[in-house]
């Protein structure tokens, strides 16, 4: 059993930022960073477009706050948003001092670009590989601190909780199959999102909602799980993201008639600034919904990978594409054999991000003392019903740092060490993994088949549009899949890099997360942001200006409750976007 002061689960942007914050402010604390992949392989590396923070003259933090709140369809907590916009510029400057190569203007100042739903240009970027550079910077900075011990390629299967306090985690060292506890007086979950619950997603294979399920199974509530973001421009078949930066630089969305169809919808940006008036820069929820309407009108293009519209960058020219969007060109050439300098890019909406996650306060504290969460796994909430693009990367930094500091304070003050009950839990977990999973050979069902059915079930009932009938059917189907999962086979009993075992553990977590998404979507009888109910098409502030909180009841089923939204200075209004 390895013992530390704080255990950070996750080596992506949020996890590394939390760990560095602890090392810098509490140098005596010993911190574990446990990650199921080598940290640089975390999903943060694939972020492309940029990170929002007010820096330009003529822009204000209040405007950034307003854009975020109205973009969230007034479901964001305004105290959280105010803290976020105030701290984001300092965080982006800090990573610049640590070496992040932000793109610059010709006069040497930090360059900013437009982004969807933002009234002003405030998105910092490092060409179109922002996340890669950001994660590299954080990773290299983390190497400076000897008190950070890494557990790379360790898969966390359970949180250790006793007497309503967290005491660490149990994990499998994937290279050997060794099952060990990594204990600590505080745990920070930074395990990212759960896009792989859906069949068509921009998310990497590892984004299976493990941390959301770990917290949920340990008794911590999840918040706003029904709010699932679709990004309007994914490549058909692979789901690879074509960043919003392509539209920010002036790209157009065209239907099958070559017509910029967004002019028919209330989707433009709320902005009087001419450079940002492009309707392609509307918020993601509305752009994805517009695609569905175009499809219903028969104005999308049919392909073997489903209906698409076209993203047109041809008028931008080679120089802009190669300097500002080189990765977009590379992805199109490599995965579609299309050169965007001369050809149209086929795109369709694709699951991209989870607004919901583990319920936390402004310092990342969850419902369980000692347990913190930050990054995409968490719901603070600054994103409400719809996240604005480029707010997530600064969120990792701002709230990763805050959660790290709070966990460090908690660990410094907490004296007790884990007792007998924790040893029993570790032994139980070891038995479960060895007996139920590594030795399970008799079932007939395959993990991959159940996973595929789960993904299609959730897409059909909790996609861009939902209704009561499909959600009820989806909840029933998920129950059946859970029963079948209990009898599924794992043929590989090898202990070295047993990817089938990991897939089974991930599927178990995804089934938990999927159930919470459906339960929350069914209870919310209104349409707001990314949650669109065809049977309840209007926003209903009287009943639902509130966060959903879902916990697991004694029979193992999700139970949904509500928590009022925190309003400070911006009363709920209409999301009216001019053209
Ligand atoms: C293609 C793409 C492009 C994006 N572009 C942008 C953008 O331009 N701007 C923006 O603001 N946002 C963007 N986003 C969103 C943003 O990148 C993510 O929300 C963010 O990077 C998530 O960071 P994280 O630290 O929370 O999690 P991640 O970076 O996903 O890291 C999760 C970590 O948790 C670990 N982990 C998970 N489960 C376990 C387990 N069971 N045991 C041990 N370790 C575990 C993983 O190993 C990993 O290290 C983009 C997202 C995608 C998918």
TrEMBL record:
According to its UniProt record, the EC number is 1.3.5.1
**Does the keyword section mention Hydrolase?**
no
- Top-level taxon of origin: Bacteria
What reaction is this protein's catalytic activity?
a quinone + succinate = fumarate + a quinol; a menaquinone + succinate = a menaquinol + fumarate
Give every FAD-dependent oxidoreductase 2 FAD-binding domain span. 5-393
The topology of this chain with respect to the membrane is: Peripheral membrane protein
Q: Which Pfam families match?
A: FAD_binding_2, Succ_DH_flav_C
This protein's UniProt keywords: Cell membrane, Electron transport, FAD, Flavoprotein, Membrane, Nucleotide-binding, Oxidoreductase, Transport
Please name the top-level EC class of this enzyme: oxidoreductase
Cellular location(s): Cell membrane
Molecular function GO terms recorded: succinate dehydrogenase (quinone) activity
| Annotated Gene3D superfamilies | FAD/NAD(P)-binding domain, Fumarate reductase/succinate dehydrogenase flavoprotein-like, C-terminal domain, succinate dehydrogenase protein domain, Succinate dehydrogenase/fumarate reductase flavoprotein, catalytic domain
Q: Where is the Fumarate reductase/succinate dehydrogenase flavoprotein-like C-terminal domain?
A: 451-577
- Co-factor requirement: FAD
For this protein, the record's InterPro entries field holds: FAD-dep_OxRdtase_2_FAD-bd, FAD/NAD-bd_sf, FRD_SDH_FAD_BS, Fum_R/Succ_DH_flav-like_C_sf, Fum_Rdtase/Succ_DH_flav-like_C, Fum_red_fp, SdhA/FrdA/AprA, Succ_DH/fumarate_Rdtase_cat_sf
The entry assigns this protein to a family as follows:
Belongs to the FAD-dependent oxidoreductase 2 family. FRD/SDH subfamily.
Oligomeric and partner information: Part of an enzyme complex containing four subunits: a flavoprotein (FrdA), an iron-sulfur protein (FrdB), and two hydrophobic anchor proteins (FrdC and FrdD).
Q: What is this protein called?
A: Fumarate reductase flavoprotein subunit
Give the species.
Pseudonocardia hispaniensis
């Amino acid at each position: 059993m390895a013992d530390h002061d704080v255990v950070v689960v996750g080596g992506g942007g949020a996890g590394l930022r939390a760990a560095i914050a602890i090392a810098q402010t509490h140098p005596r604390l010993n911190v574990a960073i446990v990650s199921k992949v080598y940290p640089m392989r975390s999903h943060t590396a694939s972020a492309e477009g940029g990170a929002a923070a007010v820096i330009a003259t003529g822009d204000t933090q209040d405007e950034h706050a307003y854009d975020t709140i109205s973009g969230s369809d007034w479901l964001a907590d305004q105290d959280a948003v105010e803290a976020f916009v105030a701290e984001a510029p300092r965080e982006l400057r800090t990573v610049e001092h640590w070496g992040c190569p932000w793109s610059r203007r010709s006069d040497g100042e930090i360059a900013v670009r437009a982004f969807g739903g933002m009234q002003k240009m405030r998105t910092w970027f490092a060409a179109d590989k922002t996340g890669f550079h950001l994660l590299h910077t954080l990773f290299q900075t983390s190497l400076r601190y000897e008190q950070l011990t890494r557990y790379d390629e360790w898969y966390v299967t359970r949180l250790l909780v006793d007497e309503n306090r967290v005491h660490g985690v149990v994990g499998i060292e994937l290279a050997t199959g060794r099952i060990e506890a990594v204990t600590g007086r505080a745990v920070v979950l930074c395990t990212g999102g759960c896009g792989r619950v859906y069949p068509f997603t921009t998310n990497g294979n590892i984004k299976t909602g493990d941390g959301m399920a770990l917290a949920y199974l340990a008794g911590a509530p999840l918040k706003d799980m029904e709010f699932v973001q679709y990004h309007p421009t994914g490549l058909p078949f692979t789901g690879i993201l074509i960043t919003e930066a392509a539209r920010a630089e002036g790209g157009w969305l065209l239907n099958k008639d070559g017509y910029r169809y967004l002019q028919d919808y209330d989707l433009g940006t709320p902005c009087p600034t001419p450079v940002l008036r492009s309707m392609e820069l509307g918020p993601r929820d509305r752009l994805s919904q517009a695609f569905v309407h175009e499809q219903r009108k028969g104005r999308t293009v049919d392909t073997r990978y489903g209906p698409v519209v076209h993203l047109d960058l041809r008028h931008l020219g080679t120089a802009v594409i190669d300097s500002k969007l080189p990765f977009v060109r590379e992805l199109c050439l490599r995965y579609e054999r299309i050169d965007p300098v001369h050809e149209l890019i086929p795109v369709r909406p694709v699951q991209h991000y989870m607004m919901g996650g583990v319920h936390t306060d402004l310092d990342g504290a969850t419902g369980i003392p000692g347990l913190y969460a930050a990054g995409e796994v968490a719901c603070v909430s600054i994103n409400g019903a719809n996240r604005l693009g480029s707010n997530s990367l600064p969120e990792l930094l701002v709230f990763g740092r805050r959660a790290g500091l709070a966990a460090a304070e908690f660990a410094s003050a907490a004296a007790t060490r884990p007792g007998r009950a924790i040893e029993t839990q570790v032994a139980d977990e070891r038995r479960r993994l060895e007996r139920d999973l590594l030795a399970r050979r008799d079932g007939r069902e395959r993990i991959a088949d159940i996973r595929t059915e789960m993904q299609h079930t959730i897409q059909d009932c909790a996609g861009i549009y939902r209704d009561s009938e499909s959600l009820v059917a989806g909840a029933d189907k998920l129950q059946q899949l859970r029963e079948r999962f209990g009898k599924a086979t794992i043929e590989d009993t090898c202990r070295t890099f047993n990817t089938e075992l990991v897939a089974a553990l991930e599927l178990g977590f995804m089934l938990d997360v999927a159930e919470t998404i459906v339960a929350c979507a069914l209870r919310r009888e209104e349409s707001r942001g990314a949650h669109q109910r065809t049977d309840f098409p209007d926003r209903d502030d009287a009943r639902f200006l509130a966060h959903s909180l879902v916990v697991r009841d004694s029979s193992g089923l999700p139970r949904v409750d509500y928590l009022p939204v925190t309003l400070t200075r911006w009363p709920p209004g209409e999301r009216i976007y001019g053209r």
